């Protein structure tokens, strides 16, 4: 038997742990009243969990009747009120007004619905929730809390676990800071994994440490000159894609994604080829950055659409994502510029990096273009 | 997630009379001897909470129940049973074994490896410890280290099992054909092996046959494994995927009938239902969506692979799918995890995101035409081959 289990175990593991049922969660909604002193609470606890702790199934037949549940109402209330507490201004808030026990169905079974209130006195600062239901018998249990601060429509989700059993309840609006942080990070991530955006930017930046003189590339004299050039390109690109990203994300403009993706690929080809020719276009790279940046903005917008935008914090998310994209870009520039500046006098940079590099970029992007435009 | 989510709150109700059955508990202690036994141990523990051996025994039994029934609450109960022992640093191999098993279940692989090593140190003949370490190394794409654990396991385990462990590891090291030959010879020569071991070996053989582009053989092994009459949702999932990939969705639907309660099989049901235009497809999709939302709400990341496939093939959101697949690949690096990362990166048009999987493919010598084809497509889009 032991060996049998052993094999089974490894077999199961080799396929990753799969869950056929839900782990244990309870659902709490806590709302602060307009009087800024009363908290109204609804708490849904799975009957199965209550049975595990309180043995509700008295006759042991595996079926819970309403009678078996109802007759233990006092025990259930006692368990619940002992495993939840609010502390305001350093004082525990006493319970009041327990509503009669009711039931509700969730996706994984029937839950007991408890309703009660807590009187906290004037809520100023420092409201804390302590949650410890089931943590002693099931450390994987979670308390999923929806907290509505006074006067707030939108609840804040909080997850209580063994190692986060005590958390402050913010009396301010749902943290805009959190939303912003999350979308900034998404923006950074998407420029980093977006090969086409990176190549476009690099193609435009490669000549920044050189200048065109008598039909030849010469190294710039100062870092300042290179920096000015980089700033012009990056600013133009940023400005352009911010405009279209915003328009698209707000649903004001939309373009078919195949067109957008194809033009993005084409933009990389054009930018890279301009480096090889070194003509007027290569001096006005900021203009190219702006024009094609408009299209790249639509590309970012489709990413953002996939992520989903919070309706209550649309603008915040949009700004966050944009800032993230910029930060991601700046990180790339910060790596590129010192390297390129150091190498600018070498033949390796002028031929190997600028010429051969641009040619390679153009070829890769040309292939993307063919693939995207003709849907290969 | 919005406050009005159906998961969260609906209108509560009060049943009309006391006799109404409001909930059926998942397994009746009365019918299930395993559950009855652990229930009685729990009662004993209530009387003597200081009994460490009793706690370990309860945890072990709950973990076995979780594995058999796929119910994560039992994992929680097992953790709860041994939690008070952690501070005492027990010198009992059984404690470290079950602790390691629980840690791997929660994908805390480094901690699990350490706990299992501790178990092996305390009881060098404990085959389970090596087997679990081998399995974890395979999940982390560390086939060479897995092979070393298999060698330690060999003198302690039944022959087919030892061969299977080795073959599985070698097949991940570019020795697919010899590994397949060795395992299929051993499986043919071991009719006395326990059914569970034969099931495991046959399923592995089916997978290897697929990689060797011998689908008829693969199907033969799948059918032989199914013929053992052991209910195993992972075998069902693997065979369903085989059928789905061959446009045989109606057969997959028949195979999986009634398996909605399993997340991994519900995913295949939804996919097969869509492919076969089954009227239940929408219902399955909706149910699955709800389960993934519930998991996301509690911050659960245990089935990111399934969620990635769901986003990719059902919801058609390649960006989101890629995000999940990339997150999954940070911890789980089996071939199927690599494949999902490559597929989603391709679909999202972000070949660079597949780089970790491509790097593994280049360095491991892993042979699989499906992965090779994906890597070529990614290379064409700008990823490194």
What would the average pLDDT of chain B be, to the nearest integer? Answer: 89
Measured between the Cα atoms of the first and last residue of chain B, the distance is 40 Å
Give the % helix of chain A.
Answer: 40-55%
| Global shape of chain B | globular
SS strand fraction of chain A: 15-25%
Would you tell me the overall average pLDDT of chain A? Answer: 84
What shape does the CA trace of chain A take?
Answer: elongated
Strand percent estimate of chain B: under 5%
Which spans of chain A have pLDDT < 50 for at least 5 consecutive residues? 1-20
Number of DSSP helical runs of chain A: 12
Number of DSSP helical runs of chain B: 20
Radius of gyration of chain B, CA atoms, in whole angstroms: 22 Å
Secondary-structure element pattern of chain B, one letter each: EHHHHHHHHHHHHHHHHHHHH
Please give a handful of descriptors for the protein shown.
heterodimer, A: 376 residues, alpha+beta, 2 domains, seven-stranded mixed sheet, four-stranded antiparallel sheet, 52% helix, 20% strand, elongated, B: 385 residues, mainly alpha, 20 helices, globular, disordered N terminus
């Amino acid at each position: 038997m032991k060996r049998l289990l052993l094999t089974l175990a490894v077999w199961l593991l080799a396929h990753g742990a799969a869950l056929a049922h839900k782990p244990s969660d309870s659902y709490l909604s806590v709302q602060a009243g307009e009087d800024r002193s009363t908290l109204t609470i609804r708490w849904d606890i799975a009957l199965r969990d209550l049975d595990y702790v309180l043995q509700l199934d008295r006759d042991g037949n595996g079926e819970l009747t309403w009678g078996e549940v109802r007759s233990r109402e006092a025990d259930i209330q006692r368990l619940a009120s002992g495993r939840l507490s609010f502390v305001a201004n350093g004082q525990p808030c006493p319970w009041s007004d327990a509503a009669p026990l009711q039931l509700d169905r969730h996706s994984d079974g029937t839950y007991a619905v408890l309703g009660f209130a807590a009187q906290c006195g004037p809520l100023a600062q420092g409201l804390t929730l302590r949650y410890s239901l089931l943590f002693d018998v099931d450390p994987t249990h979670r308390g999923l809390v929806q907290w509505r601060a006074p006067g707030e429509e939108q609840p804040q989700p909080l997850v209580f676990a063994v190692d986060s059993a005590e958390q402050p309840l913010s009396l301010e609006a749902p943290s805009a800071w959190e939303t912003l942080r999350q979308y900034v990070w998404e923006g950074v991530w998407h420029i980093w994994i977006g090969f086409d955006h990176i190549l476009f930017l690099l193609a435009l930046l490669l000549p920044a440490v050189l200048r065109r003189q008598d039909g030849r590339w010469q190294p710039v004299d100062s870092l300042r000159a290179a920096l000015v050039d980089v700033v012009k390109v990056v600013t133009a690109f940023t400005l352009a894609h911010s405009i279209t990203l915003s328009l698209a994300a707000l649903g004001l403009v939309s373009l078919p994604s195949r067109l957008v993706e194809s033009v993005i690929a084409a933009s990389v080809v054009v930018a890279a080829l301009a480096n090889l020719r070194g003509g007027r276009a290569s001096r006005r790279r900021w203009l190219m950055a702006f024009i094609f940046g408009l299209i790249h903005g639509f590309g970012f917008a489709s990413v953002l659409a996939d992520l989903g935008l919070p309706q209550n914090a649309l603008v915040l998310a949009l700004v966050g994502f944009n800032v993230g994209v910029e930060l991601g870009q700046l990180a790339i520039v910060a790596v590129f510029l010192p390297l390129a500046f150091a190498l600018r006098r070498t033949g390796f940079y002028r031929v190997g990096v600028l010429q051969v590099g641009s040619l390679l970029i153009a070829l890769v992007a040309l292939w993307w273009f063919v693939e995207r435009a003709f849907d290969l | 997630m919005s406050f009005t989510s159906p998961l969260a709150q609906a209108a509560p109700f009060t049943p009309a009379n006391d006799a109404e059955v409001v909930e059926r508990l998942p397994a009746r202690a009365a019918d299930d001897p395993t559950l009855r036994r652990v229930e009685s141990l729990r009662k004993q523990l209530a009387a003597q909470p200081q009994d460490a051996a009793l706690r370990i025994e309860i945890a072990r039994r709950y973990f076995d129940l979780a594995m058999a029934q796929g119910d994560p609450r039992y994992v929680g109960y097992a953790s709860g049973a041994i939690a008070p022992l952690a501070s005492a640093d027990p010198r009992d191999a059984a404690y470290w074994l079950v602790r390691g098993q629980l840690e791997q279940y929660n994908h805390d692989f480094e901690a699990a490896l350490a706990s299992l090593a501790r178990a092996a140190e305390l009881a060098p003949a404990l085959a389970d410890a090596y087997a679990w370490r081998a399995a974890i190394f395979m999940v982390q794409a560390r086939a060479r280290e897995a092979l070393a654990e298999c060698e330690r396991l060999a003198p302690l385990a039944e022959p087919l099992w030892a061969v299977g462990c080795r073959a599985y590891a070698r097949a991940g090291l570019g020795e697919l054909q010899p590994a397949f030959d060795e395992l299929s010879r051993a499986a043919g020569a071991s009719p006395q092996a326990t059914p569970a071991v034969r099931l495991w070996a046959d399923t592995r053989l089916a997978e290897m046959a697929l990689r060797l582009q011998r689908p008829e053989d693969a199907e033969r092994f799948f059918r032989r494994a199914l013929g053992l009459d052991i209910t195993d949702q992972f075998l069902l999932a693997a065979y369903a995927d085989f059928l789905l990939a061959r446009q045989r969705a109606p057969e997959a639907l028949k195979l999986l009938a009634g398996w909605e309660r399993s997340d991994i099989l519900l995913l295949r049901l939804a996919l097969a239902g869509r492919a076969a235009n089954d009227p239940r497809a929408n219902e399955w999709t909706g149910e699955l969506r709800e389960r993934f939302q519930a998991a996301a709400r509690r911050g659960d990341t245990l089935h990111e692979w399934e969620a990635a496939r769901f986003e990719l093939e059902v919801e058609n959101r390649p960006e989101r799918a890629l995000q999940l697949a990339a997150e999954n690949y940070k911890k789980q690096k089996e071939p199927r995890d690599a494949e999902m990362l490559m597929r989603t990166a391709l679909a999202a048009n972000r070949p660079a995101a597949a780089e970790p999987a491509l790097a593994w493919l280049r360095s491991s010598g892993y042979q699989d035409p499906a992965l090779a084809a994906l890597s070529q497509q990614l290379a064409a889009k700008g990823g490194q081959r």
